[in-house]
């Protein structure tokens, strides 16, 4: 990738990344950050299985899954180093998820419940939240 080649050639990768982001923005491109920590295959599969049980509609599950994949890579402890957003659905602040359960920091079921409630209350459904995400790059 373009950014990686610049980062390897320049002594300060952060400056290179910032320059690449400015260049991309000028060109009308959007750079998205990867989750801070990749989820293990087992933990991601476990969280996905929980979500499947909680979201019986295939269309709603698929939309929810796409958002979570983009936001956290299905990593229950993903933390955005810039904003502090946390968890599968990148709640900001993460402590908002305490309304769904005291175990919000580590329990995918609690985070999924909170995320579903958020998507339903703010957008009407996960599919509507995904449509918003596609249009804006965030939800």
Automatic annotation (TrEMBL):
Protein origin, superkingdom: Bacteria
InterPro entries: Lysozyme-like_dom_sf (IPR023346), Transglycosylase_SLT_dom_1 (IPR008258)
Swiss-Prot/TrEMBL keywords: Signal
Signal peptide: 1-38
Family matches, as Pfam families: SLT
Domain Transglycosylase SLT: 61-128
Record protein name field: Transglycosylase SLT domain-containing protein
Lineage, uppermost ranks: Bacteria, Bacillati, Actinomycetota, Actinomycetes, Kitasatosporales
């Amino acid at each position: 990738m373009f950014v990686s080649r610049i980062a390897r050639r320049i002594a300060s990768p952060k400056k290179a990344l910032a320059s690449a982001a400015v260049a991309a923005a000028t060109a009308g491109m959007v750079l998205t950050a990867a989750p801070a920590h990749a989820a293990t295959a087992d933990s991601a599969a476990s969280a996905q299985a929980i979500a499947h049980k909680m979201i019986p509609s295939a269309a709603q599950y698929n939309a929810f899954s796409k958002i979570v994949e983009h936001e956290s890579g299905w990593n229950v402890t993903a933390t955005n180093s810039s904003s502090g957003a946390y968890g599968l659905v990148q709640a900001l602040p993460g402590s908002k998820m305490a309304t769904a359960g005291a175990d919000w920091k580590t329990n995918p079921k609690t985070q999924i419940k909170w995320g579903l409630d958020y998507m339903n209350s703010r957008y009407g459904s996960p599919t509507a939240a995904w449509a918003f995400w596609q249009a804006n790059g965030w939800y």
